[in-house]
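Sanity check

After download, print the first record. It should look like this:
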Amino acid sequence: MKRLLCCLLVLITTLCVLPIRSYAAAGDREVMYFNDGSYTTVEIISQGGRASGSVTGNKVSTHYDSDGNIKWKAVLTGSFTYTGSSASCTSASVGVTIYDSAWYAISKSASKNGNTAYGWITMGRKVSGVTVAKVSADMTLSCDSNGNLS
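Expected structure tokens:
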């Protein structure tokens, strides 16, 4: 009976955190809202000068609860070279910072192809040792031939 109740709780909670809509806000910041009131912001942060022919940047996904408290942050870091006529991704990595101990990283990976860095992460939240919510973030970071990140 306890097992059935736990499974039912997991199913209900998982359905509550499915995204209901996303929209682009001012600038390069995007926000995705979930049914339970939590939300994830996504933004690009450039780290290097473009005059050198190389640039490094981050795409940052930050997850908040319905009260605006940060729960975790995932960062895709991509390094790129560009020549004015082409661009290439030279490295890609994903890191996670957890601010609430109920959350944990289920999986994370990164890859690169052409002028794009890719990152995938799935986060889980446990209550009484049972995973009751999962949130996934698929991130891409691209560089154009002039060193502009998108």
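If your output differs, re-run the checksum step. Summary of this record's structure: The longest strand covers residues 70-82.
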